[in-house]
Each structure stands twice: as C-alpha cells, then as structure tokens.
Please model this.
Amino acid sequence: MAQEVTKKRLLVFIVAYNAAKTIEGVITRIPQSLGELYDVEVLVIDDCSKDQTFEASETLRRAEGPPFRLNVLFNPVNQGYGGNQKIGFAFAVEQGFDFVALLHGDGQYAPECLPELVKPLADGEAEAVFGSRILRKKGALKGGMPLYKLVGNRILTWFQNKMLHSQLSEFHSGYRVYSVEALRRIPFELNAQVFHFDTEIIIQLLFAGLRIKEVPIPTYYGDEICHVNGLKYAWDVAFATLKARLQKMSLFYDRKFDCQPSEQTSERYNLKLGFESSHTLTLAKVRKGARVLDLGCARGYLGMELRRRGCYVTGIDLFPLDEGVELDAFYQRNLNTDDLPVPFEDFDHVLLLDLIEHLLSPEEFVDKLRRACRYSPDMKLIVSTGNVGFVITRLMLLLGQFNYGRRGILDLTHTRLFTFRTFCRIFEQAGFEVIETRGIPAPIPLALGDGRFARLLLAMNRALIRLSKSLFSYQIFIVLKPRPSLPYLLQKANIHSKIRAEKIDNSSRET
Model:
C-alpha cells in the first residue's frame, strides 16, 4: 500500500478589529477546497475590539460551522495592526505550520483567492506571495479604491522600489501568504506595532534575499471603517524605507534590517577603482616594480592589481586569499597576536588600508611596526581609515543617533574611531613622520551606481573636502615614513665615526 503523502500545514490568520459585522462572512468564505490540498487551520485574533468581534467568532467556532479547525484569541490590550500580526506569526512558528496566510477581518480581501496565493509557496516558487490590486489594469478603481489612495499607493510604491531596488507593483496590500520558514529567518518581532509593519517585513524579506511573488487579486472597498491615518502612514513608510536604504549605504544601522544571510556576512571585498578612493590613491603612490607588503590584504584583490603593474607583493591577513587570487607570497596570520613573518627591510612600501581600526590595540601594533622598520628609514607606509568626524556621522550624533552597522565608518568590527588629528597622532607618537595627508570622498558610486548623479555628488564631495577636510572626508589617507630610530642613528654614528677615524689614520701616515 502506497504511503500517504503528508499535507503541508496552512494557517489562515485573520487580524480583526471591530469586525463583528463582517468576520463571519470572512471565515465562511474560506474555500473548502483548501482542505483537499493542505492541512488547514484558521486563527482569529481580536485586537481588543470595542464591539462583539470575539463573541461572533467564538459563536461560529462553537457552532462547528467552518470546515476547518477554528481558534479564536482575544488581546486584552490593543497591540496595533503590526503587533497583532506578530502574535499570529509567533503562533504559526511555535505550532510548526508550513505556511501562514494573512486576511483582514473587515472583508477587504477575498478569501476565495487563497488557493491562488498559496500555490506558489507550495510549488517552491517563492517564500512570500502578495495579492496585488494593481496588476490588473484599472482593477483598483473598478473595485472602489478612491483615486487619492491609488495615487498615493503608486507614488509610495515608486519611491520604495527606487530606494530598495525592487520591482513590486505595490507595497501596500495586506493580503499575503508567508512561508513560516521565511518568518523564522527575519526578526519580524522588532517591527512596528502599527500599519507600516507591512513595509518593514517586505524590507526584511528583500534584505534576506527571499523571493516575493505577486498574484493579481480583486479590489473591494465597502462601507468598512478605515483605521489608517493616511498622512502618518505615508510618512512612516517613507521614513522606514529611507532608513533601510541608508543602512544599505552603511550610513545607518537598525537591527530589524540586519537580515543578510549568514553565509554572506563576510562579503566579497569590493575593490574601489574608477573613482577617488584609498585604492586608486594607493595605486598612484606605489611606483611600478616596487616591493610591497600588504598588511590586512583583504583577500588579495589590491595586491593582484599591483602585480599587474609589475610590483612584487607579499600579503598578510587573517583570512585566506579568495579562489583565483595569487600574490608573490602570502602568510595567514592574526595581526593582533602573531609576529610579523617577514623582514621589513625587504620592502619599499607597506600598506595598512582600513586595518588599524579593526585591531584590538592599534597603539601596540603601531609600536610593533616601528620596531620592524627601525632600519628602513626610506620605506613609505600608506595608511587609511574611516573619518568619524564625517559630516553625516556628526549629524547623526546631533540627532541622538550613533548606529554601528556591518560596513562603513561605524562598522561593528571596528575597535577604534579616528579623526584626522588622532589618526596622525597615533603614528607620530610611535616615531613616524606624516609626509602627506588627504581626505577621501564617500564611495558614492558603490552606493548609487556609477552614473551621472553619483559622479556629480562625488565631485561635490571633493569640492567640500577642499573647504574642510576634517568635516567632509569620508576616509583619512596618510603617507608616512619612519623617523630614524635610535638604533639606526647609533649604527650610522658607528659607521661614520669609523670612516672618519680611518681618514685621520690615513692622514697621519701620509705626514
């Protein structure tokens, strides 16, 4: 006898507030055919309604009218639209459902469309499916959506798609089906309690790399009471979207949007070429054919570029080189604890690009560097780091924000933050001489794409740096050389005293 295939478990979750007149119709309209495909349960959560929503739902449950198991819960304190969803999604996760479909108790979304919305999840085509009222041409207006709401929907959706690099027809449908596994992978519990919860969960899905599919649904606007303050909702949506975009640009951080898959947390290193950066300035400073030691070589990409220019490159880093990257020599070392494995006298340039701020004790490491190059007064060190005095960071602090993130000046892995003055001082006090200091503009082409607008902003940033380097530089770039050390001066004194003494001896013998 063939083994029976276990059905996927589907939770139809109905958020309800003052829906006593419509809740029974929503529940009874759920297609019985769903039961042939899935193991279906229905959950109604009444969010502290002022009418008889709970009583109407509970009466239906006791009458055993619906063909599916019905659970009815009541929040004694109003949790808000987003807060109510959190409770229902937590129920779906804890009870081990495979899918959870979100319906509204006011009947605005047709339960009859559930089979079409669940199917892409069951077929493995997506991790979330949204019912879209916009996909059908003029369908929203024919269904009674007010023109001002349609226009607002279109404008907000256009803005959100631009900011998030997405292509959704609308962000504002409340008819959705989620894979419960997808919900486990995002911190939805950190989202807003109110209506822009729906926007924040979309951002989380996008940032987590999860697939979203849209399915056309009919639009229905009846005589239900709208509990959404349109202007406040638009502001909340736009602000949440802007914050998410700034987080992508490493200018802001919010834990709720930190949804990047764990296997991608160590991102492939981006070589910043084609515009002014620490990499392009370094390539301009290192002469062809030079011998280069790249400390913290970050998978070796800059070293590869230097080798193409005829340089001999030795790299040292905690992590191995990426596949396909080759240097003349490479040592895998922990620069916090391990000794430097090569003599510095063998090199013309030492690179420390975006390294110092990651070390546990930058002062001790700089002292170690000074000892290593005590006999190399002609060596040049090229060093860069983020500028914590950057105007955006200062403005954020003024507004009470100082958010660490995955990348940028306030990278979570940074142990030190520097201004121009403090960065130069750490080297000068260790015995180095600063011979050049430059400010580097923000890597705008990486954030916005290398287009005309990005180039214009980059040019403006460069012009502002000329006005105030400390205020408008995103990064600090300095070139150093070691001051002659006492052992070096003593060695030179011994050598030259012997030379002069020999001259005296030779002169005496001649006379």
Summary: The first helix runs from residue 23 to 28. The domain at 8-263 is CATH 3.90.550.10 (Spore Coat Polysaccharide Biosynthesis Protein SpsA; Chain A). DSSP finds 19 helices and 14 strands in the chain.
